[in-house]
Amino acid sequence: MPTNFTVVPVEARADGGQDEAAEAAEATEGTEGTEETEGTEAPGPPEGEPDCQSPGDGNPRENSPFINHTEVEQENFFEGKNMALFEEEMDSNPMVSSLLNKLANYTNLSQGVVEHEEHEEDSKRREVKSPRMGTFIGVYLPCLQNILGVILFLRLTWIVGAAGVLESFLIVSMCCTCTMLTAISMSAIATNGVVPAGGSYYMISRSLGPEFGGAVGLCFYLGTTFAGAMYILGTIEIFLTYISPSAAIIQAETAEGEAAAMLHNMRVYGTCTLVLMAMVVFVGVKYVNKLALVFLACVVLSILAIYAGVVKTAFDPPDIPVCLLGNRTLSRRGFDVCAKFHTANNSTTPTALWGLFCNSSMPSATCDEYFAQNNVTEIQGIPGVASGVLLDNLWSAYADKGAFVERKGTPSVPVPEESRAGGLPYVLTDIMTYFTMLVGIYFPSVTGIMAGSNRSGDLRDAQKSIPTGTILAIVTTSFIYLSCIVLFGACIEGVILRDKFGEALQGKLVIGMLAWPSPWVIVIGSFFSTCGAGLQSLTGAPRLLQAIARDGIIPFLQVFGHGKANGEPTWALLLTALICETGILIASLDSVAPILSMFFLMCYMFVNLACAVQTLLRTPNWRPRFRYYHWALSFLGMSLCLALMFVCSWYYALVAMLIAGCIYKYIEYRGAEKEWGDGIRGLSLNAARYALLRVEHGPPHTKNWRPQVLVMLNLDEEQRVKHPRLLSLTTQLKAGKGLTIVGAVLEGTYLDKHVEAQRAEENIRSLMGVEKTKGFCQLVVSSNLRDGMSHLIQSAGLGGMKHNTVLMAWPESWKQEDNTFSWKNFVETVRDTTAAQQALLVAKNVDLFPQNQERFGDGDIDVWWVVHDGGLLMLLPFLLRQHKVWRKCRMRIFTVAQVDDNSIQMKKDLQVFLYHLRISAEVEVVEMVENDISAFTYEKTLMMEQRSQMLKQMQLSKTEREREAQLIHDRNTASHSVVATRTQAPSTPDKVQMTWTKEKLIAEKYKNKEPGVSGFKDLFSLKPNQSNVRRMHTAVKLNGVVLSRSRGAQLVLLNMPGPPRNRQGDENYMEFLEVLTEGLNRVLLVRGSGREVVTIYS
């Protein structure tokens, strides 16, 4: 979209600035793209002005790749004059003129360098010459050279003969459609911003993320490497079959061994050629690039010779006789005359052909039965385009391995099935032919469409040249392939088309016999073109591997990122040569072609997927200049690529996908974390949004309920976590399933504490990584801890992904004088969770809980089920035992029976209930006999209330509190000794008067108002509240029962009583919980949310 810029000079102000017009003119030059290297210094301040910094430049600027620090320091003077309003922003943000100047002089980097993504402070971009390659030279010709190659010259005639013109047309149309759709998707990606010279790997990795990018990048690398092997094998096949057959080192002793000897020769010559080519690439790529145009000229001349030969056959077909025995094609390598007898000087003598089929040269010799029954005929191998042979070649003629190459419509006398003894000069098929196999062999001939995008760093306007050049190259090559199919079918006899190695033509190249002016034009041209294509593959593949290695996404490949001083990938070239050697050892062109088809098809499939994902996500940054794309075309291309993979070879396709999947999982597990703004991240966000909207309405069904935990962490003064074992418990409870939110509160204001908040969040995330806690971190800065915890409980999570359970640590220091408000925060948090209908888990003695590395060999998890909480007490031990730490622990459930309860029936009912819940546990019913309140309980309640009244009513200084606390401690010690003495001799406890009269209340009120220590000491005359005494009695009694049975348990889960409705008794509530859990090692207090979380139904 064209955009017009108008640069308006800022008027000089009256209070300063003498040469702002010069600055405006300079900015204009920057926006118009005047080339200026980084070494060029910006003009200094105008004359007469002091060389000083503006007030806004007190801090160093951000190290941005678009800013030159020398220019920045000298431009500060101008910035302070006209842009004083933006002084603060100038400390971190560049001026527009400076930014545009750097963007105008932006240069692409070499392939795969990390500096493009992460600009290091000590690295500077190298100055390179401005690229000048256009569409024709930079994209069209390289694509043409890579697409047209070995398959066209060596296999296309054979494919037409085996599949027929119609099915060959279908094969080529499918493959060309696939590459055209891929080119459209690639054009959209390549024109969506600047693409450094990383080619398809760069596009896929930055569109689909490092996992997909690494997997597909390696597949593309393997495809390019095996393509090099295929081109080398094609070169050797042309040399040994059509140029110099006598150069074979290994000779076959029998006719059956010719194929094996040929494969051995290809291995020997292929290895030597690979070593030679690798040395050429190692010495210097510049020689390969200089020879590229020569090799391309060979391809173009060869194709022109083919078309010229076709035109010539219309009025002057070449004389190329083919010998047939019956309808079977004969090889012309062992005889010259196509006849059984030769007549000369009125005498008839058997020919050399007779000697091949008979046991002697005499007319009365015993001959092969088929030879005796059928006549020998001679036909024209290339009858010409006007001969009408096209109709005979329309349909397929697939055959099994070792079958005779037979001419349709020729009379033949069948004979009983004979043993196909070696030595008979028949032309036989070397491999079994069928449609899908031919697709796999042909597809490599349409690869090479990435050649233009691989050179994007050398193009004058890559966003214009890549789409135009690539699509034009595909259109051109598609026309060449489709027209050649029709012309071959119209000019050449079917038996010659199916003769892969030209045995009926005395071992000459079939397509060469069609060409004009000489067959050697095709032979020499195809030899050099395949040789050049092999060199190009050995040049490109190591650079692709180097780019992947330098990105650092696959750790074990990083050694291949190094190379020579000039950046040549030495180690990558060595690995490429070794992989290429495995392809050469296969030695069969027809076996190697499907392998590289798989890798290229997978690469093209992910290019289409990348375009489709980006289009459907509609990310704001997706703005390709190439407009002629659509997500439906990309999906069609992706589907076609996937279909072609399984059409070519389903087992090769599965192997290729398995390799890519293993690489993907390896990068996900061991690879470096990279954030490239890829489409998979956007796809995940869209999927998450869709899922959140689906689960927004209503609570989940009981069957789907699981604890979605909000973990409340406490931080110390250095923003480190106080109780890391709380995260260990979270990991053991969750096992990576469900939602986990790790929350913390910092006290203060966000403006003052944002740095500490970031540091605290980093500490929490690192601890989550150590403890393997999978979840989210949410940190709140609040004016006080109480409000911050309330905010977290209310607002943590998003939509339906909100927590339903709060996990926190018991405040161990709640009794300390300098921490008087911790118990208030705790009790208010309990009330908040109750109001929010959320479950609450409180871990007491949390530092004694096991780490994830520990393993309990045995032990018990004891559940004390006092009141029904929705089944959470049953569910938590089951979840804990899924983790390795608790797996070997047994689960025991204790429930408390009152005096009126039938304990035997309760046990039976509980066992049935657990059976229906599919939870295995031992069951025990504990009877709590109702007895009188002990003196110990009375004394403990009295001390609790005295302490409470002391802290409430007296405004004591810290020293006074310490003194009076010591006084209470001494009294408590004395009362404990009295209680111990009393409990030794059983006796009926004294009745205690626990009622308040009006007179006592008034007197106590006036006592409390009296100043001094005397009023404080009168607190000892208080009588405990009867309700508190009952609660303390329950806590003491239940604690004794729990201790008697669960003192040695690994974990005790206990119902957590709710806080009192009257807020004045909050500190008493803490004392009750302390007494309830006293003497136990690990305790998890559980308070349900008020809804059922387990069900007996399926």
From TrEMBL:
Disordered: annotated span: 1-66
Membrane topology: Multi-pass membrane protein
TM regions (residue ranges): 133-156, 168-191, 212-233, 268-285, 292-310, 431-451, 471-497, 509-535, 571-589, 595-617, 629-653
Catalytic activity: K(+)(in) + chloride(in) = K(+)(out) + chloride(out)
Keywords associated with the record: Cell membrane, Chloride, Glycoprotein, Ion transport, Membrane, Phosphoprotein, Potassium, Potassium transport, Symport, Transmembrane, Transmembrane helix, Transport
Domain SLC12A transporter C-terminal: 842-1098
Record localization: Cell membrane
InterPro entries linked to this entry: AA-permease/SLC12A_dom (IPR004841), KCL_cotranspt (IPR000076), SLC12_C (IPR018491), SLC12A_fam (IPR004842)
Family: Belongs to the SLC12A transporter family. K/Cl co-transporter subfamily.
NCBIfam families named in the record: 2a30
Protein name: Solute carrier family 12 member 7
Native species: Ailuropoda melanoleuca
Lineage: Eukaryota, Metazoa, Chordata, Craniata, Vertebrata
